[in-house]
C-alpha cells in the first residue's frame, strides 16, 4: 500500500475562523474513531481566507472510503459547516520518504 495524501483547499469566512479552529479537535477525534487508515492531518492557513487541509491516509482506498462517509459524525459536520467554499480536493501518493533527523 502506498501512503496517500489528501489535499483539500477551501475558504473560510472571516467570522467563521474561530468556529473552524474550535471544531478541529473533535473532527480529528471523529476521524481517529471512524476512519480506517487515517494517519495524521495538518491544517495550513494560506494568504487571504484560504486554507489547506493535508490529511495522510494509509492508502488511496482509505481516502476514498472516508470521502464516501462524508460528515457522518458531529465533529466532522461542525468542521465542514465552518467552510465557506470548497476550492478543490486532490489525492496523491507520497513519492519520497524522508526520515526526521
UniProtKB/TrEMBL annotation:
One Pfam family of this chain: ABM
InterPro entries cross-referenced by the UniProt entry: ABM_dom, Dimeric_a/b-barrel
Domain (ABM) ranges: 7-68
Protein name (record): ABM domain-containing protein
Organism this protein belongs to: Micromonospora deserti
